[in-house]
From TrEMBL:
<feature type="transmembrane region" description="Helical">
    <location>
        <begin position="146"/>
        <end position="163"/>
    </location>
</feature>
<keyword id="KW-0812">Transmembrane</keyword>
<feature type="transmembrane region" description="Helical">
    <location>
        <begin position="390"/>
        <end position="410"/>
    </location>
</feature>
<feature type="transmembrane region" description="Helical">
    <location>
        <begin position="175"/>
        <end position="197"/>
    </location>
</feature>
<dbReference type="InterPro" id="IPR045263">
    <property type="entry name" value="GLUT"/>
</dbReference>
<feature type="transmembrane region" description="Helical">
    <location>
        <begin position="361"/>
        <end position="383"/>
    </location>
</feature>
<feature type="transmembrane region" description="Helical">
    <location>
        <begin position="320"/>
        <end position="341"/>
    </location>
</feature>
<dbReference type="InterPro" id="IPR020846">
    <property type="entry name" value="MFS_dom"/>
</dbReference>
<dbReference type="Pfam" id="PF00083">
    <property type="entry name" value="Sugar_tr"/>
</dbReference>
<feature type="transmembrane region" description="Helical">
    <location>
        <begin position="478"/>
        <end position="500"/>
    </location>
</feature>
<feature type="transmembrane region" description="Helical">
    <location>
        <begin position="416"/>
        <end position="440"/>
    </location>
</feature>
<keyword id="KW-0813">Transport</keyword>
<feature type="transmembrane region" description="Helical">
    <location>
        <begin position="452"/>
        <end position="472"/>
    </location>
</feature>
<feature type="transmembrane region" description="Helical">
    <location>
        <begin position="84"/>
        <end position="105"/>
    </location>
</feature>
<keyword id="KW-0472">Membrane</keyword>
<feature type="transmembrane region" description="Helical">
    <location>
        <begin position="203"/>
        <end position="224"/>
    </location>
</feature>
<dbReference type="InterPro" id="IPR005829">
    <property type="entry name" value="Sugar_transporter_CS"/>
</dbReference>
Length: 518
């Protein structure tokens, strides 16, 4: 016997799902890309001066000749100037920027799928980390950093979209926040590993850990599903999309609506109104009583939108401005100045030499990273409870206040104030600027431009990231700790811009609803 599904949009929004095993596993594997992003952000923080021959720190063995690295003719260190060290930091952001531009100007994700791009990105991580392990020259370690940056950018574009398209509406905020939690765990892991391996004999093992994580994700990605939304909207296997949804949803009454809704999006039309049955006669999907589908809808091609359309068409103007603001604000708040150069900042404060620093400094950086993890986890449930905008405003406000304290405290050697401000900065970043930008891009933009918006947003994000990586050490050498006055001024400007230009997205399924109620 066949029955016709009769779910309305109102019913759909009211339905709540639990997290299935497959959804949880997929989210975990996808989030390993964010973990690797965080790991590579922080991996050079402690060992930079050691691997560049600018600082000596003995290892556990009598000499470097006793290590396995020496036996295979790997150098003890790679001679580099301070500018050379800044370049290997910046190479990561250059790789990210290049990958963002390529993904943003092509239809790779639409042609090959979200999961396929993530698999390709994981190979970049494997290649980049392997090059860093085997590096015997500056160009080789720079190339490794470049590939890691390309992998990170590709993942950060696709991973939020894939999670968003796999997750039910009521869990998108929480699962999206897992991305930032994974970033913070990656940063913590890098600092923790560096605490043990930042010495003349073992610094390559920091990158061995990165290779292992990359291989785990590469293999794990073959065990998770492709986005069912992508399958429907790009002429894929509808039966496979439906069976995939049955493993991702605990309330199966919404499944046929989701499929029908995606067909409407592919046509470029609106979904039925709130009180209209979701399955009209022209696009019905009969379902047997045992839940198996016997429908076969015609594949539909999504509307063709270019990056030029998104950048210059008036109807996307507000969306474009909001994407630029949240994606650049995340980087220009100054968080990565602490992530990239935190050890150097603290060494200056405590008069240590070299980024290998004393154990006290390394313990502090591990503590910073630990607080980052805890605050990211604590903030995750708040995203769906308090909303995006209040957390975003609180985040940029706290980061700005802590930047002011750092600007005053570092030149005057107020060590307690500086350490407290670093903790406050990290907490402030973790509750809003960290998890929200990549999540909100998909909520602020129309379905036909979401991939382009994510790609363009990532380009602006990596550009701002590169500016911080390149300019911060130069400005710090010129004006010292007062460089944080610049971050304070930037934070104030973004606080005002966020208040007036960024709408709340909590509780809305369509970007049109977000902007209509703004």
């Amino acid at each position: 016997m066949r029955t016709r599904t009769s779910v309305t949009i109102h019913n759909f929004f009211e339905k709540h799902h639990s997290i299935t095993f497959r959804l949880g596993w997929a989210s975990f594997i996808i989030c390993l890309s964010a973990l690797q992003f965080g790991y590579h952000l922080a991996e050079l923080n402690a060992p930079a001066d050691i691997l560049s021959c600018n600082f000596d720190k003995p290892g556990p063995l009598p000499s470097y000749d006793d290590t396995i690295w020496s036996q295979y003719n790997f150098k003890q260190c790679i001679p580099m100037s301070e500018e050379g060290v800044a370049l290997i930091t910046t190479s990561y952001t250059i790789g990210g920027l290049v990958a963002s531009v390529i993904l943003g100007s092509t239809s790779i994700s639409m042609d090959y799928g979200r999961r396929s791009v993530c698999i390709f990105a994981s190979l970049f991580f494997v290649l980049g980390s392997s090059l860093m392990v085997m590096a015997n020259s500056a160009w080789m370690i720079n190339l490794g950093r470049f590939f890691n940056g390309a992998g990170a950018a590709s993942s950060l574009i696709m991973s939020p979209i894939l999670i968003n398209e796999l997750a039910p509406v009521n869990h998108r905020g929480l699962l999206g926040a897992l991305m930032q939690i994974a970033v913070s765990i990656g940063i913590f892991l890098a600092q923790y590993v560096s605490y043990f391996y930042s010495n003349d004999q073992q610094w390559r093992q920091i990158f061995v850990v990165a290779v292992m994580i990359a291989l785990i994700q590469f293999l794990g990605l073959f065990s998770i599903p492709e986005s069912p939304k992508w399958m429907i909207m790009n002429g894929g296997d509808e039966d496979l999309a439906r069976s995939t949804l049955y493993t991702l949803r605990t309330n199966i009454t919404t499944i046929e609506y989701e499929i029908h809704h995606w067909h409407h999006l592919a046509k470029g039309t609106q979904s039925p109104d709130e009180n209209t049955p979701l399955l009209e006669e022209d696009a019905t999907s009969a379902v047997d009583s045992d839940g198996s589908s016997i429908s076969s809808r015609k594949s539909l091609d999504p509307p063709s939108i270019t990056i030029t359309d998104f950048l210059f068409e008036h109807k996307y103007r507000k969306q474009l401005i909001s994407v630029i603001l949240i994606m650049t604000g995340q980087q220009l708040s100054g968080m990565n100045a602490i992530t990239y150069y935190g050890v150097k900042i603290l060494n200056t404060l405590f008069n240590n030499q070299g980024s290998g620093g004393g154990n006290y400094v390394l313990v502090l950086t591990c503590a910073f990273s630990g607080v980052n993890v805890i605050s990211s986890i604590s903030a995750a449930p708040l995203i769906d409870r308090l909303g995006r905008k209040p957390l975003l405003l609180a985040s940029i406000g706290l980061c700005g206040l802590c930047s002011l304290v750092l600007a005053i405290g570092i030149p005057n050697k107020y060590d307690v104030a500086v350490i407290t401000a670093c903790f406050g900065f990290i907490i402030g970043f973790s509750i809003g600027l960290g998890p929200l930008p990549f999540l909100m891009v998909s909520e602020l933009t129309s379905h036909e431009v979401v991939s382009l918006a994510q790609s363009f947003g990532t380009v602006t994000n990596w550009t701002a990231n590169m500016m911080v990586a390149m300019l911060f050490p130069l400005l710090q050498n010129l004006i010292g700790g007062t460089v944080f006055y610049i971050f304070f001024a930037i934070s104030v400007a973004y606080l005002v811009a966020f208040y007036y230009k960024i709408p709340e997205t909590k509780g809305y399924h369509h970007s049109s609803d977000v902007w209509e109620h703004y």
